[in-house]
Amino acid sequence: MTDSKTILITGASSGIGAATARRLADQGHTVVLGARRVDRLEAIRDAGGDVHIDRLDVTDRADVTRFVDAAVSTHGRIDVLINNAGVMPLSMLDALLVEEWDRMIDVNIRGLLHGIAAALPHFQRQGSGHFITVASIGAHEVSPTAAVYCGTKYAAWAITEGLRREVDPSVRVTTISPGVVESELAESISDPVARAEMKAYRANSIPADAVARAAAYAIGEPDGVDVNEIIVRPAMQR
Ligand SMILES: NC(=O)c1ccc[n+]([C@@H]2O[C@H](COP(=O)([O-])OP(=O)(O)OC[C@H]3O[C@@H](n4cnc5c(N)ncnc54)[C@H](OP(=O)(O)O)[C@@H]3O)[C@@H](O)[C@H]2O)c1
């Protein structure tokens, strides 16, 4: 175990966020978990480690600010914010599921921006910090039914890279882009065509802990080493 850090994770109630929470807690870090399904967060906390939980809706800027500020006031500082919360209700554009487009924009883009807005002042004041964005392979390529989802992930990639270019080198910035990972993500797909296609596409998946290990690697590097980009996907995924 190296230095113990205080690490905040959004969308920690299932999938990648939950696996990352467990791995980092097992490594001896203090983890602060945010999501809307508090019962799921309680189960992770009850499994052991220095785990703190907080009901969080990343679409609400004030709620994200409160989440981050509360962690600073409880723990004295924050070292890492993992902006992981995301939704993926895929559909063809001509299905016109505009409310689902809006939800992806609100969670995947606005949620990320709310996290940056909440944590950046603390990182600047502390003279250290680490942003990790969980983007997607969808930040690198676009496929039918995923136009809006990929749009949000391209945006997440661009915002995170812009942040990296702008911030003082005392703040590290990492984008992790997973391929197909076991999680509940595809359950948000309401469109029957996209749902059937995704079932076949997602047959080859890797465990969420594969992404957790990538996050742990980036966090574990020394302060002067900034791991900027990681793509983790199933070997079978082309
Ligand atoms: N699994 C994959 O194949 C894959 C591939 C590439 C990228 N990703 C990305 O990985 C990230 C995690 O997804 P996952 O695969 O682990 O899926 P998941 O199991 O569905 O987890 C998504 C998490 O986001 C949270 N969330 C959704 N809306 C939220 C909101 N308004 N406020 C706070 N939290 C919210 C959910 O918690 P609550 O519902 O409890 O709020 C849940 O914890 C996402 O950004 C996703 O786009 C996943």
From TrEMBL:
MF GO annotations: oxidoreductase activity, acting on the CH-OH group of donors, NAD or NADP as acceptor
Keywords carried by this UniProt record: Oxidoreductase
SUPFAM superfamilies the UniProt entry points to: NAD(P)-binding Rossmann-fold domains
Ranges for domain Ketoreductase: 5-184
Family label: Belongs to the short-chain dehydrogenases/reductases (SDR) family.
Protein name per Swiss-Prot or TrEMBL: Short-chain dehydrogenase
Lineage of source species: Bacteria, Bacillati, Actinomycetota, Actinomycetes, Micromonosporales
